[in-house]
Amino acid sequence: MKANKNENYNLPKEHVQVTPRLIISYIVLAILAFLCLFFFYILIINSTRNHVQIQQGFSFLPGKSFLKNFINVKNDANIPIFSGLKNSVIVSSCTAVLSCYFSALTAYGLYAYDFKLKKPAFIFILLILVMPTQVSALGFIQLITKMNLMNTLYPLFIPSIAAPAVFYFMYSYMQSSLPMELVEAARIDGCGEFKTFNRIVLPIMKPALAVQAIFTFVGSWNNFFMPALVVSSNDKKTLPVLIASLRSADFLKFDMGKVYMLIMLSIIPIIVVYILLSKYIVAGVTLGGVKE
Amino acid sequence: MSGKKIKSKGGAVSYAKWGYIFILPFFLAFAIFQLVPLCSTIYYSFFEYYRSGLSIIGPNFVGLDNYKSLFESDFLEYAGNTFVLWIAGFIPQIVVSLILAAWFTDQRLRIKGKQFFKVVIYMPNLIMASAFSMLFFALFSDIGPVNGFLATIGAIDPSHPIRFFSSIGWTRALIALMNFLMWFGNTTILLMAAVMGISPSLFEAAELDGANHRQIFFKVTLPNIRPILVYVLITSMIGGLQMFDVPQILTNGSGNPNRSSMTLLMFLNSHLYSKNYGLAGALSVILFIVSAILCLVVYFSLNKEDSPANSKHSKKKAKH
Fold first, then answer.
1. Which fold has domain B73-319?
2. Where are the domains of chain B?
3. Residues of B with Cβ-Cβ distance to A188 under 8 angstroms
């Protein structure tokens, strides 16, 4: 222990001088970190203060109206926050599950089997990898109108079965971590193809699945464009649509404590998950994306 | 499809069938929810098709008329807005990300708390853009905390607050600031990974030759992360093309003042919302063509790296 401490002590002493460059870098980092955190700090503070206090100006210390704001939001029939939360959770969870499972399935299909259309299929998915879905929004709206799915939650998650970016991540992960010998061994043991995928491949893919589940969940949680076009009735609205309807109402007449509380309720779940899993999320950003 | 044939080849089991079965759901979902809608979008872009009052006009074939009236409307101006808003966020984003990536990976400059900074700067990327813009709208409104703070420190007269959302410059600057905050952490992490992928011997050699950190950055780091810079640029352009949530919420869908913050997707959204299908179709087709070009660039930049034929590692080593 002692020796260890000495070593640690010696190393930096040789290399780290407090250069002007180091000082500048800390100052810049501090400013950026401040920018990233400050707005959320005000958000949290203001959600604990009542309307009058917020109007009076700015404060660094929290108020005592957190519960009151919460109850006010809960009792406001025009902003059904809890059905919004529920809808968002349903849509985001289904999106995460569907896109992860079927992307892994597709990636496995292209990774483990040889067939005529393998290469064209792969090239096709890479070609549409970053294609925005909004370009076909017009046809999509008409399609789901014909299917009688307008103003329901289904159109918000079923299309995520085809998620090219998630597929690409899964495929890259299989290339590095799924030895074909394992699949062959399972076959020799008489394991069927679907069973091999569900019982052997999926458990190996767990780290990749977890990372992508988080990203697709968050992406769907924050998605605004499509839900704004698809859902119209209050009880079907997801959180971003609720916030938009709050914005289009006469803003100045609103209880500001309620406004801040609503914003906070829609971003706090994500921040909590992020703080708990930040290590994996930050590492996951680069995992399957683009490799240098 | 061709699965039947192979079984006759003396005993060898073919699994080709399973490949098709496994990729079927993806392609089925893609065909139903993307391809068919895309085709009908393109189809309707050639038709007169809109709602007037309670009745629907059309669809009547009008050829390229929708495209003509699109270019006669404010389309080009909105395209310009989208570009300005994107570039105003992207330039600071790429500059700051490059600097941070260089600092974080510099062996001589030992920054402590790297993990903490990474976690903090990545956080805004996960925040709901619409909630974030609503927050900015509340903070920067005439009676909001920012004006309150400026009045407290005596920077402004309390009866004359800065009207951020009546000024073209401020509105655009705030949108750019939000885009910057949401994306610079992500870009930093991507670039850091790229810099750490460069062979350390290159940096050592440069140091032995007496290069200072500026020379190392421009002569070693930058040229070696060019592929990922291209990727960041292109994906950011596609993201910029899709810019919607922030200006939509901040300006309540109006793009005001003077429609100076109206982006292409807000334009599309308003046409879709008012069931102006012909024009929405034409606009979608133009967006599709631009995205398709960008997709091709991404495809080729990925393919260079990923092609199974040339083993990646040996290629990379040989280059140096």
1. MetI-like fold (1.10.3720)
2. 73-319
3. none
